[in-house]
Amino acid sequence: MLNRTWLLILIGLAWTESSLQAQPTGKTKELINKAIQAHGGAEALDKLSTATWKGRGLLYRDRDGREDKPLPFFGDWSAVLPDKYHYTYAFKGIGGRLPLSTGLIGDKAWRTLRPDRGADDLPEEQMKTVKEEAHAWYVSHLTPLLSGDYQLMALPATQRDNHFILGLKVDRKGYKSIYLFFDRQTNLLNYLDSKVYDPEKKQEILQETKYANFKQMGGATLPQSIAIRQGKKLIMELDIDTVTPMGTIPNKVFEKPPEPKDD
Predict the structure, then answer these.
(1) Which of 133, 147, 165, 235 could be 181's S-S partner, Cβ–Cβ 3.0 to 4.6 Å?
(2) Nearest CA to 40 among 247, 246, 243, 249?
(3) Domain 2-253 class, CATH top level
(4) Residue 76 pLDDT grade (very low, low, confident, very high; cuts 50, 70, 90)
(5) pLDDT of 22 over the 60 cut
(6) Nearest to 181 by CA among 52, 20, 67, 31
(7) In contact, 218 and 39? CB cutoff 8 Å
(8) Beta-strand (E) ranges in the chain?
(9) Mean pLDDT of the chain
(10) Residue 3's pLDDT is what?
(11) Which pLDDT score, from 0 to 100, does residue 19 have?
């Protein structure tokens, strides 16, 4: 269970707090290296930092305090991680698809329903949410963890969904802590936990991203199915269809669309 996992984490963090710097780097590196190999190797994963991917999803929402029918959408993502990120969710509507696009470049983010009509700057809290999301994609590729930019700490082994998992706490200046959990047998990344800001509750809550159905995509072994929960509530399910590593992606993909010129 998720709550049991976090209880064990807190116990482990309290036990290791005074000796964080003494945490053996060999054990941590071994865990990461095994996971990198399970996901297709460092060379394949490195290429995914600049990539596009496409898929389908369901967005779960509440209406008047009750759970409403999930909204189906097609997703299209582009990224030069960790600080350039763009996605469009094309929701199915009565008149066709209703695209909602979001972009991030550095510390600026925007959102629009009509790129040909310009876009609105996101408030700082929402910008940070998009920035953390891009960073989570980056961390999930694993090879950045060996760059020296991160403080890493192994966590006690535990169980979730009847699977034994090995955990790793990941910290980088300017970002929230991320907790990675790997299947003890396959070394595949099964869960990514983090804190996200809930604008309705006006506080941070726990978000769990669960990865499943690993397939060969984009030259690596990647999850085809992704489920995201906030607290115990399912908020989104994704099915990734294609992943394409890119040598470069133009900045204009991530930059805010210009306002239309007056005739």
Answers:
(1) 165
(2) 243
(3) mainly beta
(4) very high
(5) no
(6) 31
(7) no
(8) 50-59, 62-63, 66-67, 71-80, 84-93, 96-105, 108-112, 120-121, 151-160, 163-171, 178-183, 189-198, 203-217, 220-230, 233-245
(9) 88
(10) 52
(11) 34
